[in-house]
Amino acid sequence: MLDVGVIENAAAAEASLDPIRSRLLAALAEPASATTLATRVGLPRQQVNYHLRALERHGLVDLVEERRKGNVTERVMRATAASYVISPAALGSVQPDPARSPDRLSAFWLLALAARLVRDVGALISGGVRARQRVATFAMDSEIRFATAADRAAFADELAQSVTALVARYHDQTAARGRDHRLVVAIHPSITRETKES
Questions:
Q1: What is the CA radius of gyration of the chain?
Q2: What CATH class is the domain 2-84?
């Protein structure tokens, strides 16, 4: 089971967003049969079977084993991941595109960059799973409290200059065996519990 599964297909995204199927995916962190799962989530077994077939069709659950019980074969299923993220690729031509309005001070551009990051890293993870290889990544996450808007602007300028200098130092366009990497640096106000509840 993956830590995070990437949903890149619109039909699979739709299947995962159905409230009942979402409950079943959460319950299938531990393998279960339709009968066991029906008891666990309080739904009729036939309804659970129907939804499990749809989730299996979209690759969101896997068959773990089949058990023979009298005249019946019981199928034990498990979610393919502990959690899921829907790639913007599932939105096709309406997925966010940073090239549409490249304004580095725009929150919409930042959101489009984040969407591209989810799409690209999701595709890399999917490819890595198929090839049974890890994806080489690095990420940082921190919070900083600025005393003033001027301090925030000065920090952004200094950060941009530092990153630009690092990129210039290490970027080698002539490296025949080199591999391109994308670097995204973002700064935005933190979301706190109070912010969410207000």
A1: 22
A2: mainly alpha
